[in-house]
Amino acid sequence: MQIILDCDPGHDDAFALIVASKFADVLGVTTVAGNAPLSLTTKNARIVLDLCGSSVPLHSGASRPLVAQPIHAAYVHGESGMDGAKLPEPSRPADGTDAVHFIIDTVRSNKGLWLVPTGPLTNIALALRTAPDLVDKIAGISIMGGGRFGNRTATAEFNIWCDPEAAAAVFDSGAKIIMSGLHLTHQIMATPKRIEMVRGAHKTVGPMLAGLLEFFSKMYKSLHDDFAGAPLHDVCAVLALTHPELFTASEKHVVVEIDGAHTRGMTVIDDRHVLSRTKANTRVLETIDADAAFAIIVDAIRACPQR
Ligand code: RIB
Ligand code: CA
User: Fold this and answer.
1) Domain 2-302, what fold?
2) Would you say the CB of residue 8 lies under 6 angstroms from ligand 1?
C-alpha cells in the first residue's frame, strides 16, 4: 500500500505517521499549516520521522489556506503544535518546500498510490488543480476530516473548516474518497489505560508519546464535558487503508458547504433513502474496533528503532 501522508503534526498526526511508517509503504510526507504554523508542523514531522527511524522524503507545502485566513489550534496542541514531551531536535532538514510538485511528480511516477491528508486539504487541492490527471492516477484519497457533526463549530470539523474551498475541490474532484469523520474518530480515544499501553511499548519513544497523549488528552478533557481522552483522529485515515477490517462504512454523497453563516466548512452527508439522492462519491467510515486499532498502534510504536 503506497501512500503520501500530508499532515499538520499535531499530536494525532504523529501517531498516524508512526502507524504509516510501520504498516504502509510511505513514498513521502508533506506538511501543511493547520494545528500550528507551517514551520512548526514541518519541524514536528521531522522529529516524528526520526522517532520512526524513517528517511522518507519530506516536503513542506502551503503555509495558509486557499482563501480563508490562517488559524491554528494552539488551544489543543500547544504553542509548539506538539506540546507535552521533551522531544529530540530533528536530525535533518526537510527535503524541499514544494509539496504540491512533490505530490504531482510522485503520483505520476507511482500510479495507484493513496493520498492520506490528515490536516487542511490545501496541498491536495492545489495538486489536483495543478495536475487534474492525478485523479485517474491515484488509487484514492483517505481523509481525516469532516463528519456528521463539527468540533471547530457545531457543523464544521477543524481540517475542513480551516480551508473549506480546498476541501470542496477535493470532494468534488471525482477521486475515490474514504472519509474518517468525527463521528468515527471519537470512537478511539486515548484513555488512561491506553496511554499506559503506549508508555510501555518502547523504552525511549513510549514515554515521549505517552507525554504527548497526556497533554493532548488534558486539553481535550478541559474543553469537553464527557471525553475519556483525546481522539486519535488522524490514525483512522491510515488504518482505513492498512487495516480496513477494523471498520464499517457506508457509501454516501458528501459535499462541503462554503457559504453558510452557520455551516461554512460542514461536510454535508446525504443520508436520505430517497432514490433521487445524489450518487455517492465517498466511503464514509462509520465504526471502528477501537481496542484492536489501539493494539495495532502499540505494535507500530514497538517497531520504532531504539534510540
Ligand atoms: O479535527 C481533528 C483534526 O484537526 C485532526 O487532524 C487534528 O490533528 C487536527 O488537525
Ligand atoms: Ca491533523
Assistant:
1) Inosine-uridine Nucleoside N-ribohydrolase; Chain A (3.90.245)
2) yes
Q: Ligand 1 atom closest to Cα of 151?
A: 1
Name 180's Cβ contacts closer than 8 Å, sequence gap at least 6. 142, 143, 144, 145, 233, 236, 237, 240, 285
273: annotated active-site residue: no
Say if CB 139 and CB 175 are below 8 A apart: no
Burial class (CB within 10 angstroms; exposed 0-12, middle 13-18, buried 19+) of 57? middle
Q: Is 142 in the pocket of ligand 1 (CB under 6 A)?
A: no
Distance 47 CA to ligand 1 centre (A): 18
Pair 62, 122: CB distance under 8 Å: yes
C-alpha cell at 206: 513510549
Q: Please state the domain extents for the chain.
A: 2-302
Q: Is the CB of 21 under 6 A from ligand 1?
A: no
Question: Among 8, 124, 151, which residue has the most ligand 1 atoms within 8 Å of its CB, making it the best to mutate?
Answer: 8
Nearest CA to 166 out of 115, 113, 237, 112 is that of: 115
Please return the burial class of 259, using the count of CB atoms within 10 Å of its CB with bins 0-12, 13-18 and 19+. Answer: exposed
Report the pLDDT value the prediction gives residue 73, as an integer from 0 to 100.
86
Would the pTM count as exceeding 0.85? yes
- CB within 8 Å of 55: residues ≥ 6 apart: 49, 92
Q: What is the pLDDT of residues 78-103, one digit of tens each?
A: 999 999 999 999 999 999 999 999 99
CA of 16 to the centre of ligand 2 (A): 9
- Segment 114-159, tens digit of pLDDT: 999 999 999 999 999 999 999 999 999 999 999 999 999 999 999 9
CA 75 – CA 45 distance, rounded (Å): 20
